[in-house]
Design brief:
By secondary structure, the chain is an alpha/beta fold. It contains 13 helices and five strands. Helix 5 packs parallel to helix 7, helix 7 runs antiparallel to helix 8 and helix 9 packs across helix 12.
């Protein structure tokens, strides 16, 4: 097999498929040696994988020898093979069952690959990460002009606008893509940013102001203290802050535990 087609085992599935799909689409071919239609679709998938020259990875899983095969079939509610499941960003996004002709398989692959708007949005994201927000904004807007439904362009532009304090247009961009997890995180970050303009009257209001300034530990301590004054409002503020920061932030697990202990 070539570099664009690999056999996947129980031990390699997580790294190759789940982690690998975060950098390019991974198409999983669930097959077995006794399956006639598998012998039809398999070579078609392999041919397309080589023709696309690395645009996606074809991962072949023998359902008779690897337990992850039947588990994946159950997860996607398929009762037969061949089943072909496409992964992006660590999760299954589309699938088909059976031996489709090459033209239809190519159409299936086309839907997985980035569009011109996606590529422009990715380039704009690199510019944003480099600190060139003006160039990033131009790139995101050009991508949206080509594809108004582009999630990457909309959320990327929303991040740029949020950084500049343009909260209302950022909120409009984000709203279209809820309940996408990144859109929810940005929506929470926008709400936190609005706390900067609220009157700092009382313990909770002062804590929210600290959060808007990025003084997170002080903010969380203040929100915990405010539970005795306004339990629901303080809890909602902490949950919003957790969402804005994301579970990977070092303070979130600590204060999530402390909030749970305080409430229950």
């Amino acid at each position: 097999m070539g570099t664009n087609v690999v056999e996947v085992t129980d031990e390699t599935f997580e790294q190759v498929v789940l982690e690998g799909s975060k950098t390019r689409p991974v198409v999983v071919d669930l097959w077995a040696a006794w399956c006639g239609p598998c012998r039809v679709i398999g070579p078609i998938l392999e041919k397309i994988a080589e023709e696309r020259a690395g645009a996606f990875l074809l991962a072949k899983v023998n359902v008779d020898t690897e337990q992850v095969g039947p588990s994946l079939l159950q997860a996607v509610r398929s009762q037969g093979i061949p089943t072909v499941v496409a992964f992006r960003d660590g999760r299954p996004v589309s699938m088909f069952i059976g031996a489709y002709p090459e033209e239809q398989v190519n159409a299936f692959i086309d839907q997985l690959l980035p569009t011109e708007a996606d590529l422009e949005a990715a380039e704009a994201e690199q510019e944003a990460e480099a600190g060139d927000l003006e160039a990033a904004e131009r790139g995101f807007r050009e991508a949206l002009a080509k594809d108004p439904d582009s999630r990457e362009a909309a959320l990327g532009l929303a991040r740029v606008l949020l950084a500049r304090g343009e909260l209302d247009p950022a909120r409009e961009l984000v709203a279209k893509h809820l309940p996408d997890p990144e859109a929810e995180r940005l929506q929470a970050a926008i709400e936190v940013a609005t706390w900067a303009s609220e009157p700092a009257d009382g313990t909770l209001a002062a804590a929210k102001r600290l959060a808007a300034e990025g003084r997170w530990r002080e903010a969380f301590e203040g929100m915990l203290s405010a539970l005795g004054e306004d339990r629901d409002a303080a809890r909602r503020a902490m949950v919003t802050a957790f969402t804005a920061l994301g579970d990977d932030h070092e303070l979130v697990p600590e204060y999530r535990r402390r909030l749970t202990a305080a409430l229950f």
